[in-house]
Structure formats: C-alpha cells, structure tokens
Specification:
By secondary structure, this protein is mainly α. The chain has helices spanning about 1-70, 75-90, 105-120, 125-145, 150-160, 165-170, 180-185, 195-200, 205-220, 235-250, and strands spanning about 220-225, 230. The longest helix is centred in the N-terminal third of the chain and has 67 residues, at about 1-70.
C-alpha cells in the first residue's frame, strides 16, 4: 500500500508545482497586459485629445480668416489658401503630445509668414497679414500652455525653480545604488517576491530589506500585503522612465 502511495504523492506534488508555475505565468501575463493596456489607453487618449484640439484651432483659423480678410481683393482666395496652409502646419504640432516642439520650428513658421508679408503687393494686405499673425500667435500660445512648446528662457526658468532638496530626497537618494535601480527596473516589468529580488540582486535578508525600505519610504514601490510581492508605483515607473530617457539623450554608452 505504501508503495502505491509514494508515486501517487509524487504525481500530486508535480501537479501542484505545475499549477503554481501556471499561476505565476498567468499572473505575470496579466500584470504585463494590464500595464500595456493602460499605456495603450493613455496613448489613445492623448491622440484623441490632440485631434480634437487640432480640429478646434483649424476651425478657428478658418473662421478668423473668412471674417477678417479684405473683401473684394482679387488675391483673397490665393492668399487665404496660403495662410490656411501655414496655420494648419502650426495646428498639426499639437500631435506632438509625447515630445516637445523645438524653438527652431516655431521661428521657421513665423519667418515664413514674415517672408510672405515682405512680398505683399498692396497696402491693404496688412490687414490680412495682421489677422494671420494674430491667429498664428494664438496657436503658439496654446502650444505653450499645453507644454508642447517651451522657449529656452522658459526651460531655464523651470530649471531654476527646481526644488533641489526635494529632488535629492524623493528621487536621487532612493535611486543612488545599483541594487535599488536593479529592483526598480525589474519591477517596471512585473511584480516580484522577496526571494526573486534576492536572486536578482544577490542580496540576502537584512541587506535586501534595507534597499527595499528605501524604495518603499520614497513611494517608488509598494508591497501588496505583509510578506506579499513587491510592485512599482506610478511615481517609481515615471522615475525609471525618466532615468532611461536621460540615459538615452546623453548617449552615455558611447
């Protein structure tokens, strides 16, 4: 009887192990899928928002030109087409919701309007160019208010307003070690247990706990429950993406 029980118990143990592995795989898949789903939703939202904004500014530009350009001018239609094209170019910049528009691009659009203005054949053209310039500047101001476009002076002012102590305390100190950055990088993909993080970092017991406590106190990660898995927070995820972006821009590897 005992001889029969042994292989049966072994089979049960193997089944339990397989089920546990399947559960872990499913959990990782769900976590990854949820993050990808959220990122997809945010991307769709940003895209939808930008398209609504573009339609609004394009319609406003068309109405402004139609109402305020000189009537009865033999060049009205040709000029309106050119002005509309230029304003549509600046309106299209609202699609850059995930990146910044450079100052060079803004100056290029302004310069092209000035160039057209210098070639205007009639004194009355000033009215049409003034209206177009007003609409263009309104679009640029809207780009600035949505933080898609910032001048160098504005960026410098932002950097001067940086709360140094808070940045060091909340971001730099929690991530000033290889092990903590390793932990954050791994948790950006999926949740991990204490033992998994131990295997990843090579740290044991109190040494690993020290680094986890640093990240927990800073709000970069959280623990689902006592003795539960660790997961990254929104703050931690954004901090990690910011570091990755800085690294890519500085091209430190080369």
């Amino acid at each position: 009887m005992e001889a029969l029980k042994e292989p049966f118990s072994r089979e049960i143990s193997e089944i339990r192990l397989e089920l546990r592995e399947m559960h872990d795989d499913l959990k990782r898949f769900m976590e990854r899928s949820n993050r990808e789903h959220m990122e997809s939703l945010l991307a769709d939202f940003r895209k939808g928002f930008s398209e609504v904004l573009i339609r609004h500014v394009e319609e406003e530009a068309e109405e402004g030109l139609e109402e305020n350009m000189v009537e009865g001018c033999d060049m009205r239609d040709a000029c309106k087409t050119r002005f509309s094209g230029l304003l549509k170019e600046s309106a299209a910049l609202f699609r850059n919701v995930d990146s910044e528009v450079g100052e060079e691009k803004i100056e290029e659009l302004r310069s092209r309007l000035k160039d057209l203005r210098s070639k205007a054949p009639y004194d009355r053209c000033e009215r049409c160019f003034s209206e177009t310039s007003k609409l263009q500047e309104k679009q640029i101001e809207l780009l600035r208010s949505t933080r898609i476009y910032e001048t160098k002076d504005e960026k410098m002012q932002e950097s001067q307003d940086l709360p140094v102590e808070a940045v060091v305390r909340e971001i730099l100190e929690p991530l000033d070690s290889k092990q903590r950055l390793q932990i954050l990088k791994s948790l950006a993909i999926e949740t991990k247990s204490f033992s998994s993080l131990s295997g990843l970092t090579g740290l044991r017991g109190g040494n690993l706990l020290f680094h986890l406590e640093k990240l927990l106190r800073s709000g970069m990660i959280l623990q689902r429950h006592e003795r539960g898995d660790y997961m990254i927070t929104e703050k931690g995820y954004r901090a990690f993406l910011g570091i990755a972006e800085i690294y890519a821009k500085l091209n430190l590897e080369s």
